[in-house]
Design a protein that fits this description.
Layout (H helix, E strand, L loop, with lengths): L1 H20 L4 H8 L7 H11 L2 H13 L5 H6 L8 H5 L4 H9 L1 H13 L1 H17 L9 E6 L6 E6 L3 E2 L2 E3 L1 H4 L25 E3 L3 E2 L6 E4 L4 E5 H7 L10 E3 H13 L5 H15 L4 H6 L3 H12 L6 H7 L5 H8 L42
Antiparallel strand pairs: 1-2, 3-6, 4-5, 7-8, 8-9
Helix pairs in contact: 1-13, 1-17, 2-9, 3-8, 4-7, 8-9
Length: 375
């Protein structure tokens, strides 16, 4: 029985590791980035930063709905006591952006997941989409924005910036602005409630918002970095930052900031992995050695034995069914924790204490065609 528990723990940890290493397909990245790829660089960078703080971002979206008259730098200053990351607070300057992010919470969450897991691929996708929009004559310099090509390196980079301190958020249908959409399902598109598309206009603009310091982000496109303009950042945020020169690498800043704020609160996956490893270490078992028994023919035989009749009581069958499908184990167990306790069939699974393995779950699937847009 104990060996079976070890196998389950090992499969569980391996499934977590596999899910974390899973990459987004190019189709998924195109779908995700299409609605915002033509936004000014600074605004786009802050949207991506903020999307990595999903819980805080949802709070900001709710707050913005209750304070519809607030915008610009003053709106950012008013939420400094909320404890949100500065990237989340910065979006208070742009109610239209928060409204858009609030309409599709699953899409918003996946933006953060993709930007954390594959920032280089996300940035390359933005450039790919911008090039398509330029080639179709839709992305160009106007009175609201400047579009600049940088071909100083081997790769041509397209930069977008507000033409003045008045920032206009672009409004466009991503299914057409890049040319005819090249996948089966068009991406998500958003029009502000007050906006009325004009015939023949592929890119319109929302209400202009005057900002001085609310935009402080940016991209180092050639080296796939995201940075913070320290001067603008410190002029509007209570919590100041320092760095060599006027730019700080956002990824390093996030790492330091997260370490200070959330050191005592590891993620659920980290806790599950830690508990699984601890249980095995307490019994003198090494996961790295055990992993060898789970691959190839040995692993197949172990999983067949689990379903082949060694445990025939209904309680064991309920607990161990589906072990030949590690991906399903990950889905079904992602909501529970593993702790010492008694066997329980209350939720149709194998429970130790207050959590454990249970059937159900689901979640946002990244398989297939990515985020499906609706028209």
């Amino acid at each position: 029985m104990f060996k079976i528990m070890i196998i389950i723990l090992s499969l569980f940890v391996l499934s977590l590791q596999a899910s974390e290493s899973k990459k987004f397909s190019q189709e998924q990245l195109d779908q995700m980035m299409a609605p915002i790829a033509l936004y000014p660089d600074a605004l786009l960078s802050q949207i991506l930063m903020a999307s990595t703080y999903n819980k805080q971002l949802q709070e900001a979206i709710k707050y913005a709905k209750e304070h519809t008259q607030e915008k610009g730098d003053e709106a950012v200053k008013k939420v400094q006591d909320k404890g949100w990351d500065a990237s989340v607070s910065s979006l208070m300057a742009f109610p239209q952006v928060l409204d858009m992010l609030g309409k599709k919470p699953d899409w918003t969450k996946e933006l953060g997941n993709a930007f954390l897991a594959e920032p280089s691929e996300v940035m390359d996708t933005v450039q790919k989409l911008r090039k398509k929009a330029v080639d179709h004559g839709n992305l160009k310099t106007t009175t609201q924005q400047t579009v600049k090509k940088d071909d100083s390196n081997s790769t041509e980079i397209i930069e977008v910036a507000p033409a003045t301190q008045t920032v206009y958020v672009p409004v466009y249908n991503p299914a057409y602005v890049y040319g005819q959409w090249w996948y089966a399902y068009p991406p998500y598109y958003y029009y502000p409630p007050y906006y009325r598309p004009l015939p023949g206009v592929m890119i319109g603009f929302g209400v202009g918002i005057v900002v001085t310091n609310a935009l402080w982000g940016g991209f180092g496109w050639h080296n796939h970095s995201t940075y913070i303009n320290v001067n603008h950042y410190n002029h509007i945020n209570i919590n100041k930052i320092s760095g060599n020169g006027n730019r700080v690498n956002w990824k390093e800043h996030k790492k330091r900031d997260s370490g200070k704020k959330f050191k005592s609160k590891p993620s659920t996956k980290e806790m599950q992995r830690k508990n699984a490893r601890k249980a095995m270490d307490n019994k003198g078992l090494n996961l790295d050695k055990q992993r060898k028994n789970l691959g190839g023919t040995k692993g197949d035989n172990l999983r067949k034995n689990l379903n082949g009749g060694k445990f025939q009581s209904s309680s064991h069958l309920d607990a161990f069914s589906g072990l030949d499908k590690p991906k399903r184990i990950h889905n079904d167990t992602s909501r529970g924790n593993f702790s010492r306790g008694n066997h329980s069939r209350g939720s149709g699974g194998f429970s130790h204490g207050g959590g454990g393995f249970s059937r159900g779950g689901g979640g946002f699937s990244r398989a297939g065609g990515g985020m499906r847009g609706r028209r």
